[in-house]
Amino acid sequence: MIQRCYILIDGSNFYYKLKDLGYHDLLNLNFRKFASLLADDHTIIKSRYYVGRIRQTGTKQGEKMLANQQKLFVVLKNHGFSYSLGYLLESDGVFHEKGVDVQIAVDMLVATYENLCDRIILVSSDTDLAPAIRKVQEKGKVVEYVGFSHQPSVAMLSRCVASHILSAKDIASVINPKVC
User: Fold this and answer.
1) Helices and strands (H and E) in the chain: how many
2) Quick one: pLDDT at residue 148?
3) pLDDT band at 10 (very low <50, low <70, confident <90, very high)
4) In three state form, how does the secondary structure of 30-42 look?
5) Burial (Cβ within 10 Å: 0-12, 13-18, ≥19) of residue 24
6) pTM
């Protein structure tokens, strides 16, 4: 049965999983093709990417990161994705993303209660989303966990009624070839 699906990507989680596989540049990822891979035969009603906003810092590295994030937003929009921004909180020189999980959970619940979709495809290994996953599934929607073969989340596999584990070959199939 073809279902209406909503794709939600936890950007930081996704980036670090890709980085573990040797992919460091999200700008080369064909997000439209990636969404099609995830949706399979289902109808995509919305695709959203969640990430902490990089702010101007006045440092060379900070400005480069900000410029790359702005380029990523253009790529996402060109591939039919919207994005939601959390924020980055610095603590002892380390940045922590804040607000993203809450936005994902709220969007899952809104999509469920407003009957916007039948299936939520969740690209995140963050178990903080467990209460939202439970409630969405109690309301009769499918939550499909998308993980990575090199590091699947056992907790997410057990919480979601469907799963899609991506291999390095799957990721390679959605990377745009570099033009020399």
Assistant:
1) 7, 7
2) 95
3) very high
4) CHHHHHHHHHCCC
5) exposed
6) 0.93
CB 133 within 8 A of CB 146: no
The string of DSSP codes covering 124-159 is: ---GGGHHHHHHHHHTT-EEEEEEETTS--HHHHHH
- DSSP, collapsed to helix, strand or coil, labels residue 81 as coil
> Which secondary-structure segment (H or E) carries 83?
strand 82-91
Q: What is the distance between the alpha carbons of residues 84 and 96, in angstroms, rounded to a whole number?
A: 16
What are the structural domains of the chain?
9-172 (3.40.50.1010)
- For residue 5, which amino acid is it? C
At residue 68, what is the residue type?
N
For residue 69, give the H/E element and its range: helix 60-78
As a whole number of angstroms, the distance between CA 94 and CA 36 comes to 35
Q: What six digits make up the tokens of 32? A: 């439209």
